[in-house]
Amino acid sequence: MTAPLNLCHWINGKRVEADRPSVRTNPSDTNEVVAHLPQAGPAEVEAAVTAARDAFDGWSGASPEVRADILDRAAALLLERRETLGRLLSREEGKTLAEGIGEVARAGRVFRYFAGEALRLHGQTVASVRPGVEAGTRREAVGVFGLITPWNFPVAIPAWKAAPALAFGNTVVMKPAGPTPAMAEALAAILHEAGLPDGVFNLVIGRGDVGQAMVDHAGIDGISFTGSQSVGEGVALGCARRQARVQMEMGGKNPLVILNDADLDRAVEVALDGAFMSTGQRCTASSRLIVEDGIHDRFVAALAERVSALKVGHALEPDTQIGPAVTEAQQQGDERYIEIATGEGGRIVAGGGKPQVPTPGWYVQPTLIADTTAEMRINREEVFGPVASVIRVADFEAALAVANGTEFGLSAGVVTQSLKSAREFQRRARAGMVMVNLATAGVDYHLPFGGTKKSSYGPREQGFAAQEFYTQVKTTYTWV
Q1: Which are the catalytic amino acids?
Q2: Rounded to a whole number, what is the largest CA-CA distance in the chain?
């Protein structure tokens, strides 16, 4: 076994030693301790915010080329170390090794993209209505941003929050999710190795009270949050009370519609990827499979066969397709939802039992549940595990109504060979992202990410949309 890491906070450019009262165990093998964890309190949050505020003028006033070069060096380090860091990610979070390496590479590409964006922060010159007056706009950094990040993408999501914040001249205080702080500390170390000035990026490791302290802190100008709706509501209220910027991503109950004319093999591949890969622990996962009556039975039979064949196992084993749940609580929640679904009349057609794995871990057998209705809890509440339910519908209009019939609106997909149906679904689906013949999970880092309804609040994340949140417009007038 690899020796456990002793994690630290990063404040004002230095690793800050602290007592480490808790540990993070490997979800693939709970006998292995991955890291010993510190717990921040009000003093650490205060020190981090003070460091970020002190560093803001120098960082925001630096040449954009300076910022671009540092982010590009960080990107190169992430890509160079993707295999080592990917292995740490898989041990800490439970993703398969291929997925862990891929996520680190994605984080590197996010930093590389925003290294370029640092040089492309545009303003406008416009004609004034007053003779002799020049008028225009410019975009400027906002200040200090608090980033509260989730466990399911422990380096990619911190990257897509931190990279634009830093590229545009802001400073950062980040709190990672409790189960995955080791990847966050690895990112902090790489940013400082790349040359980031002291105080520009600060990391505080702790529980929910640390996040609340950040939300309430008058020295933080904006919060970017990814997590649950229940926590997000408190974040929004806290930011509203002191008029801070806020951006929130709060999950999904994403529909994948399979129409009668769909290519069956393509439909099965899309559903299998969207619903079960990454152990279903993606906010964009295809947890509701809405299937038109004419293809329903063939689709369920074909998908059930593929789900039953999925290999569950230790994340580092090369033949593993589905790793463990991230925590014991998540494992138990997944199993509870399977029981709820069958109790309400759902029929298990694949999975539903206990996977047999040599190592002790938080494993969940991939499960497909048929004969469900739109009103069942399994189709209204986010499960966040390798569990998918099938809803039979009569036609396209019924499928669209079911797809739009929840409080979530993050991602939606349709599998069809009809261009007309595809275009109609793209236009009428109430979701921030719509996929045609693709899994609902899987997005490009240079395009906006976000949803509608209760899935998201505030400006979009990622890509060219990020400047809307991480910069502010200043209008200038000059009499000449």
Answers
A1: 249, 283
A2: 80
